[in-house]
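**Fold tokens**
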Amino acid sequence: MTHWSFATSFALGLAGIGVVALAAWLGWGNWQRNGRRGKVALLEVMRLVAVAMLAFTLLRPELIRQIERTDPPQVIILNDASGSMQTRDVVSTNNIVTRADWLAAQTQRAFWTPLEAGSEVLSGAFAAEPGMAATNALGQAHEIGTDLSGALGSVLRQQKNLKAVLLLSDGDWNLGPSPIGVATRYRDEGIPVFSVVTGQDEPIPDLAMEEIAAPAYGLFGEQIAIPYTVQSHLPRDVATEVRLMNGSERLAAKKITLPANSRFRDSIMWYPREVGEFDLRLEFPVEKEEQLRDNNAAEFHIAVRVVKLRVLVVDSQPRWEYRFLRNALARDPGVDLSCMLFHPSLGPGGGRDYLSAFPGSREMLTRYDVVFLGDVGVGKGQLSEKDAELIKGLVEQQGSGLVFMPGRRGNHLSLMDSPLNELLPVVLDDTQPTGVGLQNESLLTLSSRGRGHLLTRFDADEMVNDQIWKMLPGFYWSTGVTKSRPGSEVLAVHSELRNQFGRIPLLAIRDAGRGKVLFMGTDSAWRWRRGVEDKFHYRFWSQVARWMAHKRHLAEKEGIRLSYTPETPKVGDRVFLQATVLDEAGFPLEDGEVHGTIVSPTGRDEQLELTEVDGGWGVYSAEMLPQEGGPFEITIEAPEHDRQLETKLTVSLPKREKQGRPVNRAVLAEIASITGGESVNTDALDEVIQRISVLPEPRLAQIRTRLWSHPGWGGAILLLLLVYWIGRKLAGLV
């Protein structure tokens, strides 16, 4: 069955007829004027045909051929076999069963039988089945999830005589593009999609340990913060205890209260007593109302190492803050301390751990993990512009930490005209060069961010920690500060002073390139020792030094160091690698050849080319995009300088398929609405089958030939006009 279709207006059709008539009249006249010769008549006929074809093209003609199908129409039944279908929330004959069990029971009774009278019924499952190995065809570990768009699109591509699609799912779409896009293709084809929503709209009562964000390593003898997230779907607050376990051994415990129907984030502190690799478990007891009892724990891997931190403390005079900080760091067995005391009136300070001059070269400065800058600035008898530029490069390129601790002499204001100004977390007030002194004692008041930050953590309990900060001895002097800079995090503010921007920030941090920067706006932290010695004063500065130096020691060997971001990546995360390489003499490697190899968990090798980062700090960078989970073996080497480093990077697989979550009714209803189908609950399954059985036959398949845009049609018109023009020249017509 073939017919023509036109897409044009009545006026345009009349205009086309008029143009053809005019061309015929002009051709007749031209033939008359040229003696009615046969050649002229042939040329005029060719022109008339070309004009008629052009006019016909304006009508947008399409030749439609309809093909009558001889095969029976098809009805496709798609069954959701994902992990979320194991949720137990479907009521069936006075029992509550899992979504998968309900679907299996319906399949066993062959609910589609009424459709077989006039249609071919095909059934299939989509999404990974529970218990299947999390590997793809190549043997790679990959994410398990539900891709509704992929399942519907695959059916549309493979089947050519579709009458309808029946989707039995909870709608937990968590992989692939939006299924709304493929639903519009179903609408264009005139194929309705019916959906049966399997499950409830409310989550089942449950508590779940959702995520643990433990660091890749911790230091022996130091506290390690292990952040975690717990999701509560219980209608009441739950007082429970989180326990850190190593097999059957309890390493740490913390009492918490989980708010009703909320996500709770916190961290537990662990003090490792031995060095090594540990596979630990974080868990909490099962409540009696919980219907899922196997998701209250999660495992993770962490390494405990002994690392010697290299710290440089620079100041102008031996003020109290400098003295107590220096003594605390010097007594720390995990710190290799160097001091530089300019002392303008007496010359550089000397003694144990003292430097006679500032380490003013890249190879000398690159060894330091953290630099403390006290009441010192840029000028005669202090830091030079070159020194400031080197410190900036150390932080941004090498990932070291920098601590600003201004003093009453106001030397810090000279930093505003140096390269270090870009690194300051706050905007200094140059109208108060010697700072702000008060008669009454003031306190550092923690901000909302500071209450939960590792640097300000003196107790694992957040409320107790806040009380400790309120009880700490205060200060009578602070640096002149206007406000914090964009991108900075304010951890504590002045308890008394404020301006048009709010309370004055005195403790703030920010990222600078690959490193971290901290600003302490008072010189009286040493007063925290009153009655407790080093309990809080050293605890604070120890946490600062180790927090700042953490990334530099992710993986290291003599002459080569590797850091990566993020520290605990997941499949699909872009991981940025940075290798710092020194030559045989200990100088940062320049214009060297640095390359590496990545071996995936399934044994696939991938070459890694590292590009040198400008700045002359011996930094080489690369990136990787892991597509499978598990331990990746990374090797970085500079063969010309005998530098090689081997390490492992563990990539986790996000668990997208989670039990207990409510159904995603909205997406299933929208798919059905767009395609002209219907979305119902499980009790209306038989009614949907009846509606599908009385649907009309699929419309005839059409093959549309768009003549108005066909290249052959356009070429024919062009050929006629070309022959006509050449013929006129040969016939001697003007």
In short: The CA atoms of residues 37 and 351 lie 120 Å apart.
